Amino acid sequence: MKQTAYIVLILAFGLTSIINGQSNKKIKKGIEKYLAKKINKNEQGASVLIGKKGKILYSKGFGLANQEWHTPITNETVFQIGSLTKPITALCILQLVEKGKLSLEDSIQKFIPYFPSKDYTITIEHLLTHTSGIKEYLSLNHQNPFILRSDLESTEIIIFFKDEPLNFMPGTKFSYSNSGYFLLGVIIEKVSKLSYASYVKQNIFEACGMKNSFYGNNFKIIPNRATSYVKDNGELKKGDYWSMSIPYAAGALLSTTEDLFKWQQAVFNNKLLSKEWVTKAITKYEYSNGIISNYGYGWFLDFIDINGSKTIAHSGGISEFNSLFLYLPEEDIQVIVLSNYGDTDVNTIAIDLAKLASGNELASFQLNKELKESYKGTYESIIDGEKKTIQIYELENKLVLDTVEWKLEMVPLTNTKFQMRNARPIITVEFIKDILGNIKFISKQKEQLYEWKKID
Predict the structure, then answer these.
(1) Last residue within a domain, chosen from 357, 390, 407
(2) Which SUPFAM superfamilies does the record match to this protein (predicted)?
């Protein structure tokens, strides 16, 4: 009897394996077909990896890492990952917290005494959750027009923004802040007595076996490094040069899709941090007024909607490199897209790939024609005390949001909700019509909400 039960168990296990294998084969075929249509190999370059249940389901490179040498992209091609650096910086901070070398409640001044208190205590937790209110140093005007190309000490950059007034009281709202993560890099150095680059190398890259990941250096020979490109008036050009001292702990790391998969596996299998602290990192931060945000410690949480699944994600963009890391914890699916072409829509690609990897079909939503007409017009909002206007119009049968500075195609998700194509980070807008027929929309990017009222 026992032997019969054992044989039945083996047969059942074997049948399940065959079914899963057939299912994954079908999924991979769908992914291949989708990417063949989505990525123009003659212009766009991208490396794509999809993981499922702890294993790599799909990993492939598309296009060229270097247009001049016609070097193809592979799964070992090294990309600048921009703000995907932030979850790694947050992880380094949490390692130091777990070791008792600092506390989330510690103030900035404990480690950077020359940073003004500004009448409020700004804690490490505020920096991690983008709730410090500190001005964004990359948005401030600087007398040196070539500041992004200049190699500067961290102290020089902090001095540039430290005396700026706060945007709001710490802990009360979200405002995405490269400044906060820059400061976290300096704190890591102060506490560990290592450079940020050395700490990350020893405690993250080497610990995970990430042999193709680096702190950015424009002069170092880095094997398989990609060059970035963008189209300018129809002509393909190289991306702008940035000194890596500028993004620093907010965006200076380089990696590959396969290395980032190794890192994700190490993090969520508690190899780099205890389960307790990993759980805290992916817990939504609560503002002082009790409202729950969509950000934890270095991660956007449930910010991307994929058929109601929980999502953990972060994007990155620097010098025409684009990246998105997306994890569905309940399905145990990871999607990593790294691109060296400025107009590659990594957001849409990653979201669609996550749906396909989950076994779902992609369905394009067709917007009601009458609604499309009603959304066209001029909209107005007050942002930081200044009146702003934008236009929404139709171009080649598609709605376009035009701010003068940039034009973005509006991709309909429902009759009222849209996502902006190629926007980095993701921008969504949702239209609302009141009982009198007046139309407005709410735009959302990185937790920032703005109300736009139709005036024409």
Answers:
(1) 357
(2) beta-lactamase/transpeptidase-like
